[in-house]
Amino acid sequence: MNATKILQQGRQPMIRFLGKRTTPSTIDHTPKVHPASPTHSLPESFASYRQKAQQHGPLNQTNKFSTGIGSSSGSSLGPIEAGKGSFFDRSELPQRFQRLSWSQAEIEAVESGGASLFA
Amino acid sequence: MFRSIMPRALPRAVRPTPITRSTFCASNIYFQGRSKRGYASEAEEKDLVIIGGGVAGYVAAIKAGQAGLKVACIEKRGALGGTCLNVGCIPSKSLLNNSQLYHQILHDTKHRGIEVGEVTLNLQALMQAKDTSVSGLTKGVEFLFKKNNVEYIKGTGAFQDEHTVAVNLIEGGETTVRGKNILIATGSEATPFPGLTIDEKKVITSTGAIALQEVPKKMTVIGGGIIGLEMASVWSRLGTEVTVVEFLGQIGGPGMDAEVAKQTQKILAKQGIIFKLNTKVTKGDAEGEGVSISTEAAKGGKEESIDADVVLCAIGRRPYTNGLGLENIGLETDDRGRLIIDQEYRTKIQHIRAIGDVTFGPMLAHKAEEEAVAAVEYLTKGYGHVNYGAIPSVMYTHPEVAWVGQNEQELKAAGVKYRVGSFPFSANSRAKTNLDTLGFVKMLSDAETDRILGIHIIGPNAGEMIAEGVLAIEYGASSEDVARTSHAHPTLSEAFKEAAMATYDKAIHY
């Protein structure tokens, strides 16, 4: 009878299909020990670096998009205008926003009305 | 007055196609495509800069390219693929395969009914075959770079600051490349033996061992790990008298099951390799024509001197970070020179990650490959995964040795109750027809749940067979699951199934 019972139950394999692989909905990105680390501990420098480092905002934020500014929408970052009463000069901006210097050939082209290009 | 139609600060890509001077139109329009203007002064910032084009680096580069990132990969060797493709796994497999073929033609044909005439070795051609395989594969990787839009920078990279890598180009000159993220994949190098200077001719590492110009009469191998034994096999088959000196009491290095190690040693000794275990090399002398090393018993005592034409140092590998400029960004390494990383492969500087031999874990190409994919996925998707409990190890001697998971001595030390089942290839029909019956499959499973904890194989094609074991461990299978899965007849894989049967019940054919 016991044998029949077992037959009726059938064998339950340990491997079972769990469905399509999905990414967990929440992931904690705070540094933890690497699974293959021989010491099973992270050095103090990891925490102290994060304390002082600012990379597109504080590193300690734990939301999903903490790894980069590119993953948040522009509007969520707030307005880009300078606050009331504060001003900045164009020369304070990164190089690519600054005025370009004229080359000698261009100056000559302007002064000659473009004639220097054909000279 | 000259006035451009498009604003000057617009990037060139946005501007209309340059108008050539042969086109007849107003003169000022000729200025629109001028190359001096726009953002051309500085190279664009990459999404990912990878230092090292080895297995870890090139796989990460391709994966990142596929994900649409702007990637640059810096490699100083002049060929992609790193140690594995150029001087490691791949060339050694070529030599192992062809030397085995030569050995078999010499010694293992008559009783199969094949009469062969005079057999001679052409070492130069043997090496040529190896080089052809290597160059084919490295060029293949270069093609994949082009296909996946990876910029390949040939040169030596060093950190200038946290986002900038200065590259000393192979063809001369320097350049810098900036990256939002940087991946260190600089790999490892052979650990030299203190007191012996590596010249890759008389005192060699694995790099020299795959490029010897003639077959040495005598070779001493310091270190009985996987690399040492594979190279010992190659040269022993080609006619060298090889002595392997190992400090520990077993060959194969850590991880190999003691029973497997013992059996393997027996088989290799039968093939002509001389083993000196529990033996410490105290000093070496390469002054004379050959190389002489002095040894003593590891626990003190008997001293001996071994002379050879060539000494192979195969005592292990160490992470390679020389000249990387880690001091410029304040990155530290641990006591063994490994870069310290967290669970997402990040160093303490968040956007700088490290994978492969340069950081924790076994120094294996397939482990580096897994990490490369996971690290890029962390970058692009925020989630990646590597199961360090299911990484196989393979030694490509003949017969091959392969294992995954835990071995018997580890289980005993951890106090885990387990069951053992094994099946010899001498009882497997296919092995019998192939006249290649050395070895066995051994399976360890949890005594209570029957979940497979470790699989250890010595035998023909063990390296291929272990894939099934890795899958079983990855899926958390029981030995009964494997045993109840149909395996084709007649194949070597039936031995695997029968070992599983022996673990949970009884094997049929033994």
Automatic annotation (TrEMBL), chain A:
Source organism (scientific name): Massarina eburnea CBS 473.64
Main location: mitochondrion
Keyword Magnesium: no
One GO term describing the cellular component: mitochondrion
Pfam families in the cross-refs: Kgd4-YMR31 (PF10937)
Domain of life: Eukaryota
Family matches, as PANTHER family: 28S RIBOSOMAL PROTEIN S36, MITOCHONDRIAL, ALPHA-KETOGLUTARATE DEHYDROGENASE COMPONENT 4
Biased composition (Polar residues): 51-65
Descriptive protein name: Ribosomal protein YMR-31
InterPro entries: Kgd4/YMR-31
Keywords (A to Z) from UniProt: Mitochondrion
TrEMBL record, chain B:
Residues reported to bind FAD: K93, G157, T186, G187, S188, D357, M363, L364, A365, H366
InterPro entries in UniProt: Class-I_Pyr_Nuc-Dis_Oxidored, FAD/NAD-bd_sf, FAD/NAD-binding_dom, FAD/NAD-linked_Rdtase_dimer_sf, Lipoamide_DH, Pyr_nuc-diS_OxRdtase, Pyr_nucl-diS_OxRdtase_dimer, Pyr_OxRdtase_I_AS
Cofactor(s) required, per the database record: FAD
Catalytic activity: N(6)-[(R)-dihydrolipoyl]-L-lysyl-[protein] + NAD(+) = N(6)-[(R)-lipoyl]-L-lysyl-[protein] + NADH + H(+)
S-S pairs: C84-C89
Catalytic machinery residues: H489 (proton acceptor)
Domain Pyridine nucleotide-disulphide oxidoreductase dimerisation residue range list: 391-500
Gene3D superfamilies: 3.30.390.30, FAD/NAD(P)-binding domain
Cofactor note: Binds 1 FAD per subunit.
UniProt: NAD(+) binding residues: G223, G224, G225, I226, I227, G228, L229, E230, E246, G316
EC class: oxidoreductase
Gene Ontology CC entries for this record: mitochondrial matrix; oxoglutarate dehydrogenase complex; pyruvate dehydrogenase complex
One GO biological process term: cellular respiration
Keyword presence, NAD: yes
Keywords: Disulfide bond, FAD, Flavoprotein, NAD, Nucleotide-binding, Oxidoreductase, Redox-active center
EC id: 1.8.1.4
GO molecular function: dihydrolipoyl dehydrogenase (NADH) activity; flavin adenine dinucleotide binding
SUPFAM superfamilies on file: FAD/NAD(P)-binding domain, FAD/NAD-linked reductases, dimerisation (C-terminal) domain
PANTHER family: DIHYDROLIPOYL DEHYDROGENASE, MITOCHONDRIAL, DISULFIDE OXIDOREDUCTASE
Similarity comment: Belongs to the class-I pyridine nucleotide-disulfide oxidoreductase family.
Additional facts recorded: The active site is a redox-active disulfide bond.
Protein name: Dihydrolipoyl dehydrogenase
